[in-house]
Write a sequence for this structure.
C-alpha cells in the first residue's frame, strides 16, 4: 500500500489530518524513514507509515507526546532487533524489525503494548519506560500486575491492525465503486 497523506486522512476518518502528517515530517517525528517528495508532488506513505500514524494518534489521545511515541516505537524495534540479532542492532535493523513485529500479524494472538510512566503530582510525565509487548489477555493482566510505575498506557495493537485493514478495504471498495461509475 502506497498512499498520499489525504488517503491516510480518509482511512482514519479525519483522526489524522494531512496537515498533522506534514507537521510530523517537518519536525522529524517519524520512526519509519520517509523518502523525499519530488518537487510539486505529494509525499507518499507506506502501510508501515499508516500503522505508525494510527499508533501515534491513539497513544497521543492517551496523553503521550509525539516525541514519546517515536521513542517508544524506536525502543520496541531496537529491543526486537537485538533479540533477532543476538544483542546488537543498527538503526536499519530496527526499521526492519518494525516491518516484522509479530504483533502486526493478524494471525497471531491478541497483542498489546504497555508503556509505563512515572508522573509528577501535576500529572506530567517524568519518565517513560519502554514498550512491553505481550500477546494474550491473560499475559497482559499478569504484566500489569507487575508494573510499579504510577501510570501506564495499554494499546491493543491487534485492534489497530484490524481497524487499518477494515478502513483500507472500505476505502478501496469506495474507490472501485467510483471507478465503475
Amino acid at each position: 500500500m502506497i498512499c498520499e497523506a489525504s488517503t491516510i486522512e480518509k482511512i482514519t476518518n479525519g483522526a489524522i489530518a494531512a496537515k498533522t502528517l506534514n507537521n510530523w515530517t517537518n519536525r522529524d517525528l517519524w520512526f519509519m524513514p520517509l523518502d523525499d517528495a519530488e518537487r510539486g508532488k505529494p509525499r507518499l506513505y507506506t502501510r508501515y507509515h499508516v500503522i505508525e500514524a494510527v499508533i501515534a494518534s491513539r497513544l497521543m489521545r492517551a496523553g503521550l507526546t509525539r516525541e514519546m511515541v517515536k521513542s517508544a516505537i524506536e525502543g520496541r524495534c531496537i529491543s526486537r532487533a537485538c533479540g533477532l540479532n543476538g544483542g546488537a542492532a543498527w538503526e536499519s535493523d530496527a526499521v526492519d524489525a518494525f516491518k516484522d513485529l509479530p504483533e502486526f500479524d493478524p494471525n497471531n494472538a491478541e497483542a498489546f503494548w504497555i508503556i509505563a510512566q512515572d508522573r509528577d503530582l501535576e500529572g506530567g510525565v517524568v519518565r517513560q519506560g519502554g514498550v512491553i509487548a505481550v500477546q494474550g489477555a491473560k499475559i497482559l493482566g499478569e504484566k500489569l500486575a507487575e508494573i510499579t510505575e504510577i501510570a501506564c498506557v495499554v494499546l491493543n495493537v491487534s485492534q489497530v491492525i484490524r481497524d487499518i485493514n477494515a478502513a483500507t478495504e472500505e476505502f478501496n471498495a469506495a474507490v472501485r465503486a467510483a471507478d465503475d461509475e
In short: The CA atoms of residues 81 and 96 lie 8 Å apart. The first helix runs from residue 5 to 11. Helices lie at 5-11, 18-26, 47-61, 66-85, 91-99, 137-146, 157-180.
